[in-house]
Design a protein that fits this description.
InterPro entries: F-box-like_dom_sf (IPR036047), F-box_dom (IPR001810)
Shape: elongated
Distance between the termini: 91 Å
Pfam families: F-box
Protein name: F-box domain-containing protein
Structural class: alpha+beta
Organism: Arachis hypogaea
Number of domains: 3
């Protein structure tokens, strides 16, 4: 039953009994039941009725549901930690250095150095409401800062068969994101980014930090992985999809395969042709540091994929890229007359 029907039913029964009853006369449990079914806009409208409802309609437990429903696919622990940091800094008033850089009350900077207690960094365009109408309303403030695009939150962006860490801002009018990446300044990584191109970081390893691999000796041919890679050692890592392959000396027969026990580990990137030097890279299981070269790139930590949904997503992207590559190019064809000229009599 919807909140409107529930409230209407209660009021009708009271009218039949001759009881003049306002919304605030309802038992707390009944009122909470009604409020939890209201949409974000309806909660905002209800909050304007009186001071008591203003406080109730801003309660975190009511907005947690809306946060999860709208933002649960892209907002993870990292983003929540960033938001908590913004709330704390605004309340403490310790806006020092590059953290408080703009006269309009922005928290963070898209060009400066981030404080040590920030993971990737984030950017809040206007912190005035944190000490104003949204004070002590953690979830409601976060919801509307995301909805209006004022909170640039950290997440990850699918670009081809690589994932990059970035900051995202939402455009509610077009229901898409734009992303910035820290690479010698906060440059645009992409615009018109759909929801399916954004994901919550599965681990909290910062983009410049080598991920410590804890599955090196468990990896065997056929395992699906994500591996850190960067073109040069001075830049951040992206995460590239790969599959563990067989050694050159192995024929792939499971009954005779000993690749899992070899010190060398073959990683295949199936988006490249078989003949490409980028197709395979051989790593040393004993080397927990960065491996590679300028030719193939530098590879860092490995994350083994156990979730079938993640593997399915990567396979879909691999298939889509393969189909895109196979699409026939349209060539210009001259008119029939030009192909078969008709010569007049001499």
């Amino acid at each position: 039953m919807s909140s409107k029907r529930l409230l209407s039913g209660i009021m009708e029964k009271n009218e039949e009994r001759g009881i003049n009853m306002s919304l605030m006369d309802l038992p707390e449990a009944t009122l909470d039941c009604i409020l939890k079914w209201l949409s974000p806009i309806e909660l905002c409208v209800m909050s304007m009725v009186c001071a008591s409802l203003r406080d109730r309609c801003g309660s975190n437990h009511l907005w947690e549901k809306h946060m999860e429903f709208k933002w649960g696919r892209v907002i993870g622990e990292v983003a929540y930690k960033e938001w908590q940091c913004h709330i704390r800094k605004a309340k403490e008033g310790t806006l020092l250095g590059d953290y408080f850089t703009n006269l309009n009350g922005s928290l963070g900077s898209l060009s400066g150095t981030w404080p040590d207690d920030l993971y990737l960094g984030s950017y809040l365009e206007d912190c005035g409401n944190l000490n104003g109408q949204f004070s002590n309303k953690f979830m409601k403030a976060m919801y509307f800062s995301l909805e209006t695009g004022r909170f640039w939150f950290p997440a990850q962006f699918y670009k081809g068969l690589t994932i990059y860490n970035a900051l995202f801002s939402y455009d509610s009018k077009s229901d898409i994101f734009q992303a910035r990446q820290h690479n010698g300044g906060w440059r645009f990584l992409g615009k018109n980014i759909g929801w399916d191109m954004v994901r919550i970081p599965p681990i909290e390893t910062p983009p410049y930090t080598l991920h410590i691999t804890d599955c090196f000796y468990d990896l065997k041919p056929g395992d699906h992985i994500e591996i850190q890679r960067r073109g040069i050692t001075e830049t951040h890592y992206g995460w590239r999809y790969g599959v563990i392959g067989h050694m050159e000396s192995c024929n792939g027969n499971e009954n005779y395969c000993h690749c899992q026990h070899n010190e060398e580990l073959v990683v295949e990137f199936k988006q490249y042709p078989e003949a490409s030097y980028m197709r395979k890279v051989v790593l040393n299981r004993r080397n927990s540091g960065e491996q590679g070269s300028r030719a193939t790139g530098f590879f860092g930590g490995i994350r083994k994929l156990h979730n079938h949904h993640d593997i399915h997503l990567w396979n879909n992207r691999l298939t889509a890229q393969a189909l895109q590559t196979m699409e026939p190019r349209l060539h210009y064809a001259p008119p029939v007359e030009a192909q078969y000229p008709v010569h007049g009599h001499q």
